[in-house]
What does this fold into?
Amino acid sequence: MTRHGAGLAVLGALALALVLLGPLFLDRFTLNVLTRSMIYAMMAITVDLLWGYTGILTFGQSAFFGAGAYATALVLTHAGGGVQNFALALVLSVVVPMALAAMVGWLSFYHKSTPLYASVISLVVPIVLTQAIFAGGSFTGSSSGLVGYPTMKLGAGNYFRLAGVALILFAGLSWVIVRSDAGRLMVAIRDNPMRAAYLGIRTQRVQILLMTALGGIAGLSGFLYANAGRIVAPEIAGFGFGTQMIVWTALGGRATIFGPAMGAIGIDWLGAQLSGALPYLWQLVIGTLFVVMILFMPRGLAGFIPRRKRAAAPPRLAVLPDDRIRKGGGDALLSVSGLRKAYGHFVVLDGIGLEVRPGELVSVVGPNGAGKTTFLRCLSDGTEAIEGRIMLAGQDIAGRPPEAVVALGIGRKFQVASVFESMTVAECLRLARVTHERPSLWRRADSIGLPQAALDILALTGLDQKLDQPVGGISHGMRQSLELAMVVAMQPRLILLDEPTAGLTKAERTLIGEVLKRLTHDQGYAAILIEHDLDFVKEISQRIVVLHQGRLVMDGPVDEVVNSDLVRSIYSGMAHE
Amino acid sequence: MALLLDIATTAALLFIVAAGLFVIFGVLKIINFAHAAWLTIGAYTTVVATEMGLSPWVSLPLAVLLGGLLGAATEAVIVRPLYRRPLDAILATWGLGVVIVQLITLGFGRDMQMPPALITGTVDVLGTPYSSYRLFLLAAAVVMGLAFVLVLERTRLGLNAQAVIMNEMLARALGINTARVRLITFMLGSAIAAVAGVLLTPLSSVDPTMGIPWLIGAFMLVMVSGTSVTALALACLCFGAAQVLVSTWVSPILGSVTVAVLCAVMLRLHPKGFARD
It folds into this structure.
């Protein structure tokens, strides 16, 4: 265990002692308030996991909390107390919100859905639920809520202990998960969902699963709340309460787990002390503070605590046994026929036909606006509206989102290096292997297995010496190389490269050329390369395809194409004659 | 007949309430959560005006003035630094809304206010007596819609705004002062929202939190309409009709969420909503 980990274990034990011994010296009012505050703190952590870590701004966690609390209160009101009814209430308070959350997740996350859309949906859910409670009449208690149902007879002290232990367990669990390899997935989706999808990560599925799991936690908190508070009212399912959780999280400091928990406890406790005396003023202060924080201190109060420098040693790099080395030739890996892409009346690509076999490196050249990047996008995203057919490894990619096309064996490197800004080099590389090795939920692997070609890129560029450095701080050339290494690490069968050498030095360019040659000649990868630099293209590829005004005008061996009149005229700018 | 009139006037009301939000979202691509607070402020200008013994009509120019000024201040101080963090802009404007609601509560108390209506009485429409105020709203919505189209198509500001909507970078490169377009748009949107608040007074209770129930419906309508006025009008008509029908035949409580639910489902199944391009 690291020193950091040991420190936290001590902190956890201390917190545990506090919540177990607290009832001995706290008065009843404080006990009741803090019990509630600690339940709220669990909700704040669910919001933090969704918003702070995964980038899903949700106003709707209150709906799942309310669903859990109401499921409990409804069972106990209408079926009465008794052990089996408490068990039923407990089960329903988890299952019902999870089902609701899965449905909300399905509504919110789909290919090309926007974060704004997910936020708006999260607003609608609590409002609909509240109206449903109002519409429920005497069954749900309508606007006055439910009260006087039998609850577990634990006493104020034990409810305090129960809430405290639940909070510490959940906070500890969350802390472990966000630091695990699986936790990096969440941050990857927040930082750069497109890159995540092109690494083959099914981002929407991760988001829906997370939302469902946290819906269950919210429901469980609701169960505790309904028992400890002995009353449920429609407000706890409402949008106002949902936004309050955002305030706790933002003020405490998003993406820190402890910040939001402390924010919830602090604000709720202070509010209980002050709101009696200055009811409106308190809300005013919180609101003002919130706006100021969002504007000037996005990291919240946790921003005052200096961030620890990561002391942990970077993971080792290990070489994967590469059994994928095979001969070139054989059947076409990619075959495109009759591809046409238009935006309204504007035709970008028309009548494109192309076949690429394993081991081939095909360069696509053409002037700006010829449709080269659009071509790559059509190859890697089956949901693009096109005419014609694109077959990859014998499968039609039509209708498949990027992550599914990646699963067929494509890897795409973007024109502008697309990596995960807040992560280290090693973390980026680890994510590139996520679809091959299931990431652990509770620890970080101490070694990363990469194919030899990816290791070569790292060694040649010196990136292997910078594994623990944040990506935000490395040079442009290194970012390009890192992204290339990530794509190669996925072991795709076909690599799509969009101007991989743009902005690189001569030395870096030569190096990337070497790596590409080795990948295709020796290891049987196929590659399609978009490139402006004809000398570079001549150096490394066997075949050149010329795109001009959306049409594929030439396809042939390097010398033939480079020396053709057409290419000369395009490159000397006389193509329009 | 009464049902048809209900549908038409409900759609008009939705249009009026959503208009200010629509203007801001269209150009700035930011959901202004302070919208509910602007509505409330507008309604309270009526309260203030009538308490001072003035005609409730005076509150209309008052609301335009107040809404515009507050809009300008909000844009400059809160929204401008957050253009690159759209989700944070949502949060900051929402926080501003909370602050305004609390200030109103401190100033006027929590109680419901009853300002006199702008127009009272009924008129006969083809033999059906109908609230003349609701008919006035219908006219107001039509005027507002036409004004939108005229401003967008016929004025320099409208053309500049269209340029910003389509491609802000290019607009700036062409010498359009995009910062000013944003400022004016936000002012206009806020002023329109405040006017909507005035127009709401006879129909909705006037209290510090009155804006909230209108907020979500307005959001959803704007989301399904994108940047087209026609789409917004169409969306208001369709979902307004659904709301009236559900309220009449099923339950008024469920009617109040009909718009939001239908819009959400529509966006999931057909993400472009009513917007065409």
Notes: Chain A touches chain B through 37 residues (CB under 8 Å).
